[in-house]
From TrEMBL:
Protein name: MaoC family dehydratase
Domain of life: Bacteria
Pfam families xrefs: MaoC_dehydratas
UniProt domain MaoC-like: residue ranges: 6-91
Lineage: Bacteria, Bacillati, Bacillota, Bacilli, Bacillales
Length: 112
């Protein structure tokens, strides 16, 4: 199964309010550039949690069924990037793979 979504500036502010992570590289272009990014980058767990939300919205995952998540972060997702997620059902739950600009950004497993 394949899904796609865009990480917006509003998404990063909403996530920061929930998580308390106000690192300026997520919001300030100058801070992001000083850190080596073209523009602000999204919180890694924001991207991963969007994947979980997509599975829930598709009826493939119920919050009560979620036992464990395990994500490995390979590259940043910049605010405004379109993210492509592949979800593959396995015996334990789902294997999730996220790409942005055809670059692997996150790999993860969701155990249910």
């Amino acid at each position: 199964m394949k899904y796609n979504f865009v990480i917006s500036e509003t998404d990063t502010y909403s996530y920061a309010e929930l998580s308390g992570d106000w690192n300026p590289i997520h919001f300030d272009s100058d801070a992001a550039k000083q850190a080596g990014f073209e523009r602000p980058c999204a919180h890694g767990m924001l991207v991963a949690s969007r994947g979980l939300a997509i599975l829930q919205e598709a009826g493939l995952l119920q919050e009560a069924d979620l036992s464990k998540t395990d994500f490995t972060f390979h590259a940043p997702v910049l605010v405004g990037d379109e993210v492509y997620m592949e979800a593959e059902r396995n015996s334990d739950g789902y294997k999730l793979t996220f790409y942005s600009e055809r670059i692997l950004v996150i790999k993860g497993n969701v155990t249910i």
